[in-house]
Structures are given as structure tokens and as C-alpha cells.
Design goal:
The chain is mainly β and about 270 residues long. The chain contains 1 helix and 17 strands. The chain has one helix at about 5-15, and strands at about 50-65, 65-85, 85-90, 95-100, 105-110, 115-120, 130-135, 135-140, 155-160, 160-165, 170-175, 175-180, 190-205, 205-215, 225-240, 240-250, 260-265. It has a 12-stranded antiparallel beta barrel. The longest helix is centred in the N-terminal third of the chain and has 15 residues, at about 5-15. It is globular.
Length: about 270
């Protein structure tokens, strides 16, 4: 059985398992990488699982008579805490669709996405203090069809950072370096990214943030720069469950005009 056909049911089983109640223990509140584009400088409690589900995520772009809509649904990230300072993670979109519409008509491709494997590690062995940072390496395995992915292994390193201030304010940043396949299909090149967010807990479990992000794809055929900005909102309904939603607006032509997303996270 091809790996992309086998991983879909496996991840779907993990998501189903999330329906079971979380263990009643004295744990820190759930710390999810949702919502937004960056990662958060925290790890899952040791011996616990966590599921972060993108229920719906869509981007829309219209340029020179060509409209491109990209949709993902049921995109889970499954995490397991190894220790107080490390966890392992896996994610794959169980359904994604790319629709291209131009003067000649519409074309749509759909299926599962690529599989991402990653790990978070806190080299300081703790998440206390006003400044926390982690190492977050990842690898992408080509489980998506050729019409949705490039069929090659890629990877990178993220370094999530959080500065906590008074008045329930925090500043987060996720600098990232990626190793990507060249547009020519031969060889690899680097890409530099960062997401910076200003966040505030506003009470009743609500956290509001505005984030800006940049991506510099250094392909030898020509660098492509993308920039975006948008608000995001998370609601911690209890220590184990979080609901979220957000949007992002592109600030230059290579960036999709609009992204909308909604999701849910649960620790168990």
C-alpha cells in the first residue's frame, strides 16, 4: 500500500481517539501551535498526547485573470510528550484541494497532503522565565500526489521564541530556515522565514494576537518574497481544550490575497 494511502487512515484514527476525556491531572494549560503560522515555545507534558486539528483552511488569490483557491480540511497534528523539555509530532492534511480557474476553464486536484515529522526540544530544560526558546527541526516526506506536491524530501529548522511582559502581553517569534527543492527540479536551495506576533490574554480564556510574517524563497531561478499580516483569536475553554480562528491578508503580489482558518486543539 502506498504510504500516502496508509497514513490517512492512521492519522484519522488518532483524531478519533481524541474524543476520549483527558486525564484529570495537575498539568499546565494546553499549549498549542495553533492558531497562526508560527510555533510556540512550549512542549507537550510528558506521557501525554495532544491533537491540533485544522478543521478548515483556505487561501484565495487572483492575478492576471487567474484564480487559485487552495483548501485543506481535517489536517491533524499529533504530538506526544517525551519529557519536560521534548516532544515529537506528526501532521498531514487528510484532504486538500487546489482549484485553478482561468480563461480556458477550471482545473481541480485533490487528495492527501505531505507528511511532516518534527520534534521540539528545550535546551534549557524548562519553560519558566520571561524568555523561552526551543529548537524545532522537521522533515517533509512526499506522501502527496504529484499534482499536489513536488514528490521530494525537504526539511528545515524553526526556533520558536516567547517574551512575556506585564499586563498579560507577550511577543512571539518563529525564525525558520528551510531546505527546498529547486524550481528546476534538480538540487536544493534555502528559504528564510519569520513570524512575529504580539499577543494579549484578554480574560475568560481568550487570547488575541496580531502577527506579521515574511518568506524569502531563495530559488536560483529567482527569489520570491512574500509578506502577510492578520489577527488571530484562541479560546481556552478548559485546561485541555482550545478553539481558534484567524485570517491573513497578503501584502504583495506573490502572496495569496486572503487566508481564512478555524481549528481545535485537545490534550488527552
Amino acid at each position: 500500500m502506498p504510504i500516502r494511502n496508509a497514513m490517512g487512515p492512521a492519522l484519522a484514527g488518532f483524531v478519533f481517539f481524541c474524543a476520549f476525556p483527558a486525564h484529570a491531572e495537575d498539568l499546565k494549560p494546553i499549549c498549542s501551535d495553533r492558531p497562526g503560522r508560527g510555533a510556540v515555545a512550549c512542549t507537550v507534558d510528558p506521557g501525554h498526547w495532544q491533537a491540533e486539528l485544522s478543521l478548515w483552511d483556505a487561501t484565495f488569490q487572483h492575478r492576471a485573470g487567474v484564480t487559485i483557491d487552495v483548501t485543506q480540511a481535517a489536517n491533524p497534528t499529533i504530538k506526544y510528550g517525551l519529557s519536560d523539555s521534548a516532544d515529537i509530532e506528526a501532521s498531514m492534511a487528510l484532504y486538500q484541494s487546489v482549484r485553478v480557474h482561468d480563461g480556458s476553464g477550471s482545473r481541480t486536484a485533490s487528495g492527501v497532503g505531505d507528511l511532516f515529522l518534527r520534534a521540539k526540544w528545550n535546551p534549557n530544560s524548562g519553560e519558566s522565565g520571561d524568555f523561552v526558546w526551543l529548537l524545532d527541526p522537521f522533515i517533509k516526506l512526499p506522501t502527496a500526489g504529484r499534482n499536489l506536491g513536488n514528490g521530494e524530501v525537504e526539511g528545515g529548522l524553526m526556533v520558536p521564541m516567547t517574551w512575556t511582559f506585564g499586563g498579560n502581553w507577550a511577543l512571539v517569534s518563529t525564525p525558520e530556515v528551510d531546505l527546498l527543492l529547486n524550481g528546476s527540479g534538480a538540487g536544493y536551495h534555502g528559504a528564510l522565514l519569520d513570524v512575529i506576533g504580539l499577543c494579549r490574554d484578554i480574560g475568560s480564556g481568550l487570547n488575541l494576537a496580531v502577527e506579521v510574517w515574511t518568506s524569502q524563497n531563495l530559488d536560483p531561478q529567482g527569489t520570491q518574497s512574500q509578506y502577510g499580516i492578520g489577527p488571530r483569536l484562541a479560546w481556552l475553554s478548559d485546561p485541555n481544550d482550545q478553539f481558534d480562528a484567524g485570517l491573513a491578508v497578503g501584502l504583495n503580489r506573490p502572496t495569496p490575497d486572503l487566508e481564512l482558518y478555524v481549528g481545535f486543539s485537545r490534550r488527552f
